[in-house]
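Practice record 12: protein with zinc ion.
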Amino acid sequence: MKHHWKFGLIAGMMLLLPLALATTTITTASAAAKNTTTKTAKKAKPKAKKHYLIVMGHGAGDPGARGNGTTEATFLRKHMLPQLRKYAKKVKGSTITFYNPKKNLVSDTLYHHKGSYKINKKATVIMFHLDAPAGHGGHVIIHKKHPTKRDRRLAKVIKKYVGLNKAYNGYSYRTNLRNCNVLRRRGIDYSLVESGFITNKSDVKHLKKHMAKIAKADIEAITNEHIK
Ligand SMILES: [Zn+2]
């Protein structure tokens, strides 16, 4: 009897041992998980990434201005958008999204009460257009009386690759653009980039020739981040 009892005790302890070990493992694992969670939470909290929404002008049945065998909507989507997307992917410090290229921000806003009415107030909107009917060079339509640092960087890109429109010397502050006024009233920061004249042969030639460099420089100007 005594013998059996002793055996029972040892057997019982042997059964309990893996259980005790397992419990220790679980405790350690959950402690590690807790630590990781705390660390991630601490890291992610203070750095909410800045969101930029890029909008290619016109589209959805609105061709925009015409010139040099193309339209604003086609040129912006076919030549510029793929390059902008390529460099937008390389940005680390900000989030860049694109307004659905099958849609038209202006008509969505003015005729459907969507578009600019639905954009998150914390986002910054960058709109790309081409100018017409006649002239040379680009400029930035700004949302406050004086250009922001971002507007200045965007104007520099135009100056370098296409040239600035002498009529504006880089910037134009306008309050008669209804879509932009919706953004302004809602307190949304924006810049509208007129990259050059679609009707000007030399402007279009420069835009096509340097499109990759322009797109890279524009993304850098928007985010103020250097892309390798
Ligand atoms: Zn336009």
